[in-house]
Structure prediction request, 238 residues.
Amino acid sequence: MESFVSRSVVERGAVRCGKCLLPTRWCICSGLRAVECPVPVDVLMHRREYRRPTSTGRLIQRVMPGTRVHVHGEGTPLSREALVRTDRTLWVLHPDGELPAAMAEAGRLQILVLDGSWSEAARMRRVVEPWGRCIRLPAGLPPSRYGLRKSPAPGMYSTVEALGFLLETLGMAEAATQLRVQFELHVYAGLRSRGAVAAAEKFLAESLLPAELPGCLSALTERRRVGQAPPEPDENAT
Prediction:
């Protein structure tokens, strides 16, 4: 992984957006697009993850309407009643689970993703596993594109990538694609905010962003004057 140089705007203590948590120079809120999904999604997020700009669990909450976030380790233990939807079968996404059923009925599912380090996710899984089924992704998926953190091993994915692959497995290709677009915007802006220009350009070369969000990408890459505010989100965007 590229080592980030000292000219990174993050290291200069730049002011951050209160929503995406990125430095305002690289705020991605103007590119926010809602990702519609018929399966309700919940995020169980470790408390240390909640204010990290690199968290993709927060990204899921921002782009998928109706997503509920439950913070683990904030005092009050999580209860089954607060998490499990009574009319749904809970699927907990984790690498140690079983493969999903080939003909799963999406209308009766609830997906729970775990957001934290691998050790934190393992501890959170032990809390919620008795409440549903632990599900893993199929083999043979593309490598992770989460360039903001180092993966502990091949075949491991960020929270939002894992959710996208599961949606694709369930036949929700459009939702998976749009989620990938939002994820790639998150990673690209994160790399640029660190001054990792070469890594960002390499990432962009294999990205959906130029085709899907050309206006937002252009606004991000143009050099704004110091102190100039980022563009306002498009209120007409879906």
